[in-house]
Design a protein that fits this description.
This protein is of the alpha/beta class. The chain has helices at 10-19, 59-67, 85-90, 103-119, 121-129, 155-166, 192-198, 218-223, 241-250, 280-287, 302-320; strands at 2-5, 26-29, 48-51, 72-75, 94-96, 147-151, 170-174, 187-189, 201-204, 228-232, 253-258, 291-293. The structure holds nicotinamide-adenine-dinucleotide (NAD).
């Protein structure tokens, strides 16, 4: 039974091949993204294609997969904004994902970005290597007592909130579907506008949907405190990059940490150190001293990769055995 991987990296091969010893599926790994240019490389009667965040599962691609007999699209990630689910249904293809491989991995990375930006660890590291032990320019602020705004209180948002409460912060959250069972001292749900107006740090933890595309734009930035810190480990399309660059240039945005970027599929997950990057927006962002960019690495822990491989292979095995009703509701999407 063949499973064809796209966007496969050496670490995907390592973790999936190890756990596949118990399943003995026939695994094929392609490094390239899945899209119209390569979909014909999928062999006839392949049971499953296993994809990641930047593979493009458009109607065109899914229709070709359906014609080849593919029965399952297995996302080895939580977000599924890159898959046309209606097309998958029409083509009789199931879609599964890994909804909760390690919320703590992403939450901890968001906290790492806050601490690094605030205490300027990225600058201190370089400075000390030049034997420059001066402190000028490295002044930070205490997180204790600050107001943290969290957009999206799902698994990652909640893990993040618990850490920030541990720092002695007050945490505000906005969620389209607030969790009435989630209570903690120092935590409260507020409106989107109140969160924008009162937070010292805003961290995004909601999925990207058609309705919240560019939720952080000129209008939202204008409501925020001057010098706001914004952290995005969720999806690039939640932020209008041009508006963010304007906010950084004017000083309205004091710090910006991004692990995701709206044009990331042309950049992230590959070594471009010897290439000319044509994307002027990311180059502009990286030129600011108060911007920290990581290349979609928030999920990248040993625990998370083990969980991703194990949940994905288990789902593939259950769907292949016709036991789709045994795949948990949050995992199976169609
Ligand atoms: P989740 O489904 O558990 O929680 C998402 C929360 O967002 C839910 O509470 C939902 O009600 C809320 N929400 C939905 N639409 C909203 C809106 N328009 N405004 C405000 N809140 C809204 O998801 P999760 O596991 O916590 O993951 C959150 C996001 O993190 C994922 O969708 C994905 O985009 C991103 N992610 C990034 C990485 C990374 O490596 N950087 C890894 C995993 C997930």
């Amino acid at each position: 039974m063949n499973v064809t991987f796209f966007s496969a990296k050496p670490y995907d091969k390592t973790f999936f091949s190890e756990l596949n010893k118990q399943y003995q599926f026939d695994l094929t790994f392609f490094e390239t993204h899945l899209g119209p240019h390569i979909v014909n490389a999928v062999k006839e009667n392949t049971f499953c294609v296993c994809v990641f965040v930047n593979d493009k599962l458009t109607d065109e691609v899914i229709t070709i997969l359906g014609a080849k007999g593919v029965k399952l699209i297995a996302l080895r990630c939580a977000g599924f904004n890159n898959v046309d689910l209606e097309s998958a249904k029409r083509n009789g293809i199931h879609v599964c994902r890994v909804p909760a491989y390690s919320p703590e991995a992403v939450a901890e990375h968001a906290v790492a970005m806050i601490l690094a930006l605030n205490r300027k660890i990225h600058k201190a590291y370089n400075r000390v290597r030049e034997q420059n032990f001066a402190l000028d320019g490295l002044l930070g602020f205490n997180l204790h007592g600050k107001k943290i705004g969290v957009i999206g209180t799902g698994k990652i948002g909640k893990a993040f909130i618990k850490i920030m409460l541990g720092f002695g912060c007050t945490v505000f959250a906005y969620d389209k579907f607030p969790d009435s069972n989630f209570h903690a001292p120092g935590f409260s749900y507020v409106s989107f506008e109140q969160l924008l107006r009162e937070s010292d740090v805003i961290s995004l933890h909601c999925p990207l949907t058609s309705e919240n595309h560019y939720m952080i734009n000129d209008a939202a930035l204008s409501m925020m405190k001057p010098g706001i810190m914004i952290i995005n480990t969720s999806r690039g399309g939640l932020i209008n990059t041009d508006d963010m660059i304007k906010g950084l240039k004017s000083g309205k945005v004091g710090y910006f940490g991004l692990d995701v970027y709206e044009q990331e599929e042309k950049l992230f997950f590959r070594d471009l150190s010897a290439s000319i990057i044509e994307d002027d927006r990311i180059q502009r962002l990286m030129s600011f001293p108060n911007v920290l960019v990581t290349g979609h690495q928030a999920f990248f822990t040993n625990e998370a990769l083990t969980e991703i491989a194990s949940t994905t292979l288990n789902s593939i095995a259950l769907v292949h055995a016709g036991k789709i009703n045994q795949v948990a509701a949050g995992i199976i999407l169609t």
